[in-house]
Amino acid sequence: MSTDALMIIVIAGLLSTACAVLGSFLVLRRQALLPDAVSHAVLPGIVLIFVLTGQRGSMLTVLGATAFGLICVAGFEWLRRTGLVAPDAALALVFPALFSLGVLGIGTYASGAHIDVDSAIYGDLTFAPLRTVELAGQAVPRSLLITGGATVAVAILVVVLWRPLKASTFDPGFAQSAGLRGRVVSTVLLLAVTVVAVVAFDSVGAILVITFFVVPAAAAHQVATRLSSMLLTAVGIGWASSLLGYRLAEQLDSSIPGSIGLASVMLFALAWLAGRGRGRLGRFLHRGSSRDTTTRTTIPVQQARPSESHATAAPSRDR
Amino acid sequence: MLNWLLNSLPLPYPDAVVVVGTAALGFVAGALGPLLVLRRRAMFGDAMSHATLPGVAIAFLLAGTASPGYLLLGAAASASAAALAMTAMVRSARIAPDAAIGVVLSVSLTLGLVLLTHIASTGDSQQAGLNAYLLGQAAGMVEQDIALTLTLGTIALGCLLVWFRLLRSASFDPGFSAVIGARPWIVDAASTGLLAVAIVLGVRTVGAILMVALLVAPCVAARQLTTTLARLVPLAGLIGAAAGVTGGVVSGKAELPAGPVIVLIATTVAVLAVLFAPRRGVVARSRTAVPATRDAEGAR
């Protein structure tokens, strides 16, 4: 395997690590689609910085993109809080508008330059090893530095905030009352998701960011029994799909990020089959589904109190 | 009749084609949007529209030509397959709806990208134009496209009219519609099929990525202005059509891609409606100082 190939796999693996860790929390919090929205919404930020400074892929770009990621999240929160728009519709309203701004900006100001719609959508992971910066006398790919930095930052964040993150994910009410500052932690998580989505956007393009965040995490969710093992499994699946995906791209002569995504989808299918009906997290999910069964089963016995019907319906589902 | 309409517009012929096409599309998508928004499934529609990509690529590989008929058939098939997959994943209760949508989005996009880049690398000269399905291309519209949009759109709106009561009860009270004997899966299949029609009509014009906005934004705007579904559907359609017309004209004049312009206009209308709607809007509510909670309950 050539050095360039190894470099691409390592960058993809590092990116998967950061995405999978944050993605696991998002999947458990039912916010799995947020990175998708953010990754589309950052496009105008990247274009704006390009138009203003002529730079693409500098720290300024990351800042501009993050700003628009935050605008997306803030707009979504505002629409949701008005109570006039359901959360899903709010999300579907905000990100296409921002993405449209970006597409129009590229078409108007930046056409023919180094930034084009294709690289915004497909990403340039393939050429990542070619763009290097000098570090301690050696040429190091810029993506490796940015992605590595983001991964280390995410790891530190999760380790430091482990208890409040865990509490606010599984039991937000408890987290708030126990003084674990659930809301602050949620905001920090959103901020981290935005930054990592921007980093991911640079490597894999707008539309595959969701794959890196959600698929390994959802796969791990199928098999893992504890939060810590879910995170580790998700990271493992991320690295495995980076390796498999690179091989697949070579075989098919096709897009590397796309093939990595395809590999992780295959691993998800395996995990889905393997994890059927097992494990504590599986039962946690079953508890969610038993709510569906209650609404179905309570129709004939509508006199029963909700708590009773829940108590009778839940075990019948588990058996 | 179509000819007469195209000639009577005060626009050059190619622009008139685009404007009539985007207006028809805006109306169909807007009127079908409530099927998504009222059931809180907006992102479900996003996944369905992204799922048209692998269908387009597979149809191209099978048919060997980029003729729109085959490609749209492929798009419809894969959008429906994605909807089926999401429903099955959620029904089997092993995965939350948002994660299921995320996984299906990922399958569609990765498969679509891998197939499209593979097709591009084979250097087939026929493959030009496939990329248009990602971001849309209204400029290439011809009269036949309008005829197709009008025919399929009329059929879809006719179905919506015929099944209106059924879809209404399923949107607001699934339990009730199950009790009166409407099989949930039939209602699901019907509304998914109608949405697939709207999405397939839209992907070539506004693209797979932005299509969801054309379904959601007009409905969100109309929802702020009316309280009954019988008025919501035509109003959302009209708002969609208006966004389509304005977007078509503006993009023609300014030589911008039509899809993003239409989406921005529709979103602006929706945000303005949220802010300034009489009684319900943010501004009206802050003036009369109605407690937000009471109003939110009323909205439900």
Automatic annotation (TrEMBL), chain A:
The keyword Membrane applies. The chain crosses the membrane at residues 6-28, 33-53, 59-79, 91-110, 144-162, 183-201, 231-249, 255-275. It is found in: Cell membrane. Residues 299-310 have a biased composition (Polar residues). It is a multi-pass membrane protein. Keywords: Cell membrane, Membrane, Transmembrane, Transmembrane helix, Transport. Residues 285-319 are annotated as: Disordered. GO terms for biological process: response to zinc ion; transmembrane transport. Belongs to the ABC-3 integral membrane protein family. This is Manganese/zinc/iron transport system permease protein. It comes from Haloechinothrix alba.
Automatic annotation (TrEMBL), chain B:
It is found in: Cell membrane. The chain crosses the membrane at residues 16-37, 69-87, 99-120, 146-164, 232-252, 258-277. GO terms for biological process: response to zinc ion; transmembrane transport. It is a multi-pass membrane protein. GO terms for cellular component: ATP-binding cassette (ABC) transporter complex. The keyword Membrane applies. It holds the Pfam family ABC-3. This is Manganese/zinc/iron transport system permease protein.
